[in-house]
């Protein structure tokens, strides 16, 4: 049973930065993508970024390009989402995703 646990959310001012972490447990296979989605109040969940496990190949939604970076520490079974130049519209619950598995989410709030 794969389990994903996010951390690192919080409240920041516009222009600020945060790094989210997602710890993976129960992993017994390879060759997959793992990534981040987000859901703002009243909106649908949307794709943010993903990376191929052990491939180094990453993909980003337009909302993330140039501001967010996804990275992985394979020996720690952890992925990260480094977010810079945060905007109020980035306010959302951020979820780690691997196939059918989802984390519980971590809240990011950007405001003055």
Structure description:
By secondary structure, this protein is mainly β. It has no helices and 11 strands. It has strands at 3-7, 10-12, 18-25, 33-39, 46-52, 58-60, 68-73, 78-83, 92-98, 101-102, 106-110. Strands 2, 4, 5, 6, 9, 10 and 11 form a 7-stranded mixed sheet that branches. The radius of gyration is 13 Å and the shape is globular.
Summed up, what is this model?
The chain is mainly β and 112 residues long. The protein is 0% helix and 53% strand. The protein contains no helices and eleven strands.
Keywords summarizing the entry:
112 residues, mainly beta, seven-stranded mixed β-sheet, four-stranded antiparallel β-sheet
How would you summarize the topology of this molecule?
Elements: E1 3-7, E2 10-12, E3 18-25, E4 33-39, E5 46-52, E6 58-60, E7 68-73, E8 78-83, E9 92-98, E10 101-102, E11 106-110
Parallel strand pairs: 2-11
Antiparallel strand pairs: 1-3, 3-8, 4-5, 4-9, 5-6, 7-8, 9-10, 9-11
């Amino acid at each position: 049973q794969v389990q994903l646990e996010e951390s690192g959310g919080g409240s920041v001012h516009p222009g600020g930065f945060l790094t989210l972490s997602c710890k993976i447990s129960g992993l017994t296979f390879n060759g997959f993508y793992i990534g981040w989605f987000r859901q703002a109040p009243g909106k649908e969940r949307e794709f943010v970024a993903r990376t191929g496990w052990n491939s180094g190949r990453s993909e980003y939604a337009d909302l993330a390009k140039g501001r967010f970076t996804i990275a992985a520490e394979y020996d720690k079974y952890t992925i990260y989402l480094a977010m810079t130049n945060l905007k109020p519209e980035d306010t959302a619950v951020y979820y780690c995703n691997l196939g059918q598995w989802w984390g519980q989410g971590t809240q990011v709030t950007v405001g003055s």
